């Protein structure tokens, strides 16, 4: 369920930040603002005197924004004054005309730079020859790194900042429900230029994030080479699983079938070896050795050999991402850490609110009640890996092997899945002509990694659906993930092409696109012609959503703890970071999971690859589950496509305003928790 692995992080490099009261030196220390406040007040007074009361707010905020961003290299104080006096647009028709021109041209720049990025990264992200250093050089190059610098040099950035005020999250939330669509578009235009990050910092961050993505994309385990204490192979030869997605999904699939419990325990051992880096380097993406993950013994041709533990590479990559993001901090006084940017600026929900919401959920009495129900269904005490319990999902009474037989025959290659996309949308409620229109803008590609969805940045461009399809066709796991990613692509395509203003294209944050992906994914069997006739399906869906939220909220709490620790210990080594990550995972486990799933000091919440290659993305998943459940309740009994279009063509409003427009209430844990309680009453 990887949606846009490095894209969100890259957006944080090029996008915007809070209004600066002073510029910062490249070393991170403050420097005296070039434009003195007396000059600012002089310009404001002159404009107010000549233009009157109507544009007063825009004058005061716009002139201050330009002053905050103006450097000596941009011109003298007199140049600043002349620029503001000569370029402030007072009349509404002229302001709308300026907006339209800026919007058109920003779409051109965004769209074509994005297309370059997609093409340069293809050798890294798609199946093909082994990645070579030259591929990494081109793939990690950010062609747009100097674009913002250029916009300041040619004064386009100043023109935008002068005429379109930046509103804080609090202002958008409080005022936004009363804004017109055009006023919202103006507000998003005001988000466009509020900081100046040097191009070399953006370029270095791009390189770091691309290398992190490549590290994770090539981190596979050959399952047929794993053995138990008896030397037995439990998994088929040739099974190659990426961490953590493939390992987790294989663990989930083994709640049924032969040797299921033993297989799950073996996968769990593999995960723990990855976390503590005791995994032999010889078994990462290689199939030359046999490995017993329980006792960490390595064999070659039947004889035990010495394994070489992976160096602290996993934590070196995480630390590299931290330093890349931290280097941007000095240029964002209103959002002075990547933590604040990830939550307050990009998610547009304060980090403290997210943490409080998740902590309240994982501490709720419903967790223990649902866990007891799972234990009853399994007929055994729960073990730590039951955090991934998958038994609430209906599989039509068919084991996964039979489902794979269906999907591999139906989708032998990416072209077959591509050809079926319009039919999938029709089954979900879209008219045929609209289904064809949407899917004509989606391309299915064979992914080197776990798979992801990558939307376009201009109208009528292609969104990419990357998924793994083996030589024998698409297995059920791959199909399930592909349907998830297709949900992302549909959202990306509709919110790019059917939203009225380009500056409003998209969704409030990536949790909202995760919600669509979950909405599609849970209907995967219906799309195969196996509708769920179970009268308890709604209750089972509620429990499935509840347990998935419980799982991923803990992972997100670990992720937040780790980033706070890195900010408190910026000079940490990879070895020190490893211990801190494991300690954070154990702390969260002991507080919220040990009493439910057993085990003390379990580190498993640290296995998630998102933590390593996509800085602070993880919180979007549990938020997505909460949003998904509220949306699911909204679409019940209605045409899914109609409701989707009504909700998602709102575009990129702030989250709580969007939710009120979509479902009539803000994001809340209560619907999910109440539904779980009702489900337990009905099923027990």
Span between N and C termini? Answer: 31 Å
Radius of gyration: 26 Å
How many H/I helices? 31
Structural class: mainly alpha
Main sheet overview:
3 strands, antiparallel
Quaternary state of this entry equals single chain
Low-confidence stretches: 1-31
Order of strands in the sheet with most strands: 3-4-5
| Approximate strand percentage | under 5%
Helix proportion: 55-70%
What are the defining features of this structure?
684 residues; mainly alpha; globular; disordered N terminus; three-stranded antiparallel sheet
Describe it.
With 684 residues, the chain is mainly α. Helices cover 58% and strands 4% of the residues. The chain contains 31 helices and eight strands. The protein has helices at 7-14, 37-51, 56-69, 77-87, 92-125, 133-139, 147-153, 156-163, 169-175, 181-190, 199-217, 245-253, 260-276, 313-326, 338-347, 351-362, 365-378, 400-410, 414-427, 432-439, 476-497, 510-521, 524-527, 537-568, 574-592, 594-597, 610-613, 620-635, 640-648, 655-663, 670-683, and strands at residues 220-222, 240-242, 290-292, 297-300, 303-305, 442-446, 452-454, 463-467. The strands form three sheets. It has a three-stranded antiparallel beta sheet, with no helix packed on it. Strands 6-8-7 form a three-stranded mixed beta sheet. A two-stranded antiparallel sheet has the order 1-2. A hairpin with a 4-residue loop joins strand 3 (290-292) and strand 4. Helix 2 runs antiparallel to helix 3 and helix 19 packs antiparallel against helix 20. It starts with 6 loop residues before the first helix and ends with a helix. Residues 1-31 have low confidence and may be disordered.
